[in-house]
Structure formats: C-alpha cells, structure tokens
Structure prediction request, 219 residues.
Amino acid sequence: MTSIDTEPAEPLPAAERGFNLGLPDGFHGLPIDQSDVAGADAATSFTEDIGGIFGLSADDENAQAAAAVFVGLGLAASRQGLDYAAIAYYLSPDDPTRPIMILLTGYVAPSDHSHPADAVANLRQDLVADAGTSVHDLRLPIGPAVASVSEEQDQVVVEEYPFPVLTRQLTAWAPDPDGAAIGVVTVTTNSFQDWERVCTVGLDIFDTFEWEPLGATSS
Prediction:
C-alpha cells in the first residue's frame, strides 16, 4: 500500500495562489478534512467511489474498509500541510494480476524569487544536498521547473514474516512567474516493477500544471 507519514508535521506556510492539475482517468480525490466525509451521504458517496475502483458496492465490508484507509491517507496528508491528495489504482499492462497504486499530493509554498530561473537554481542547490535524491531539470508548459526522485526502503511484517517495501517518489517543483509561490506535486508508489509507467503518468500530470491568479489559494 502506498503511504505517507502519518505523524503531524509543522504546518507549511500559506501561499497566495493555488494551481490546477488535469488528472487522468483512474484518479480519485481523497478527503483532506473530516468535513469532506461528514454525514451519511458524503461518506456513502466516497465509499461508492472507492469501492468502484475494486468493483465493489458501497455496502461491501471490503469497500468500507478500503474507504476508511483512504480517508486516513487524505487526513494524514492534511496534517502534513498538503493541499490536495488523490489515489489511483491500475493493473500493470505487463502483468494483469499486478496492481499499480499511485498516491498524488500537492501543495503551494510561498516564495520570493526574482525570476523562475533563479528559483530553479536555488531549488537544485537545496535538493542536491540530499545524497539520496536525484535532481533533473524539467521544462513544463508553464515554464522551467525541477524534478526530484527519491526512494525509501522499509519493510512490513505479515504474520511475523518481514517483507521489503520500496517506496519511490517523483516530485515537480514549479516556481510561478510572479515570484510569489512554488507549486510542489508528488507521485508516490510502492509499485517498483512499474516505476517507469508511474513516472510517465506523473510527468503527464506535471505537464497539465496551471497557476491560478494571485490571491486564489484553492488547488
């Protein structure tokens, strides 16, 4: 299961604008506030949405359990100060029995750069300081950006037997043209066998990145 840290983090500073993304079919937005699933209608609607990923009805216990897990993911993202979270579930074209799970998150950080190129240079300098992160120039339709790739090795224990888990992340760091904000979009997956396909999905999403006007903070 793709995951994010569930421990509360220091709130990220608020920025003065938001951004929009065009997500491909298969992505489902996660609640980032408890009010998003407050009430029977909202909870049932979300359970139907998540159950539909796996071909289950909303009254199926497995659908309800999956919905509860994904609500937890969304709320965990919110506690970290993220503005948006979505999940996608596909079957690998190479092996129809192998699932591909992708978690997408996004947030906007305030900035004070004089030009996007300056922000890119500073981002590169900061990111390359992490020996476990590879950094690449990224040219998006909205302008220059930076891509970073990182991975974390962990393990899960099932019936006392440890199983290795490799989590990889591809992140786009996109400075705005007005020097006010940097948009950060990340795709995370444990589906290392299909990492190249996940990267393709992520890069296609990054290409849809569009800034909202200054003062618009929704994303």
